[in-house]
Amino acid sequence: MNEKYSIGVDVGGTNTDIGLVNENGVIVARTNFSTAEYSDINLYMDTMADKIKALLAQNNVSEIEGVGIGAPNGNYYTGCIDNAPNLHFGGNLKVKEMLETRLGVPVVLSNDANAAAYGEFVYGGGRGMKEFLMVTVGTGVGSGFVVDGKLVHGHTGAAGELGHSILIPEGRQCTCGRKGCLETYTSARGICQTCAELRDAMPEYNGVLASVPADKLTSQMIGEAAQTGDVLALKTFEQTGRWLGLACANAVTFSSPEAIFLMGGPLKAGDVFLKPLKQSFEEHLLNIYQGTVDIRMSELKANDVAILGAAALLKNK
Predict the structure, then answer these.
(1) For residue 92, what pLDDT band results from cuts at 50, 70 and 90?
(2) 37 alpha carbon, distance to own chain's centre
(3) Which end of the chain is more exposed for a tag (fewer CB within 10 A), N or C?
């Protein structure tokens, strides 16, 4: 029997990554190109199609099941990317239709967090589970819900925006236009802002982050400082963990998941982030859910999850 292949595409604001994925969830080859260089969606889609064709030719693959695309503001129902803030081509982009026309194969599109959730379901720690939640922490905070073995898209195709649930009314300004969204507190940018605010309130602090300008702080830098026991960095992750734990506890009331999977760069800080997160989660969890939900790190490799997740979307058709 011939091996089955699919293509996974991760559309990012800086780069677009493309992978050839076999039926066992192994990325056998990959390529990429700059998203940021394009302001014309037609030229961008021409390049995507050409890159996919070249990848197939280089690996002697003549037939694929289709292409899965994970993209910011990707809508599963319409196959469109809707006004993604980090892409130079705005508006309502008919990506599914455009790529199907160019390649003649099925194309499935969803947002990047949903793709990550379904990748976990098909290829990662969610295999065998019917109910779980994926939370992605990075530049923003995303989420995807798997309920009864299916990815939840909602009425409009935009379900799973945990990052834009309001954590603190009238709090920090969010890029979505509202104030106090979870994303403004627990994303990489939110972590940096918390660190800067805590530092302003600690005039006696003279640690490794004391002289770093606020606009030069990174979550990686703060995570590395926390690993050395830096008091400011530890306070930052203590507060951030408590916020995210509270949000996860609230999310449980929606679907009563078996597990919550976490992934993203800031979580590499390890226990200094995860311990307060789990403590806050247990403190705020409704009693009927106590002891029923396991918080875990994603089992997919960070460099593979976006492509695998996108490819996995084809199995959710």
Answers:
(1) confident
(2) 23
(3) N
Q: Are the C-beta atoms of residues 173 and 185 closer than 8 Å to each other? A: no
Phi, psi at 111, each rounded to 5°: -75, 160
Q: May I ask the CATH class of domain 5-119+304-316?
A: alpha beta
The total of other beta-carbon atoms located within 10 Å of residue 317's CB is 10
Tokens of 305: 């999850």
Contact (Cβ atoms closer than 8 angstroms) between residue 242 and residue 282: no
Residue 130 · residue 146 · CB < 8 Å: yes
Where do the CATH 3.30.420.40 domains begin and end in the chain? 5-119+304-316, 128-297
Tens of pLDDT, residue by residue over 35-80, are 999 999 999 999 999 999 999 999 999 999 999 999 988 999 999 9
What's the predicted TM-score (pTM) here?
0.90
Class of domain 128-297: alpha beta
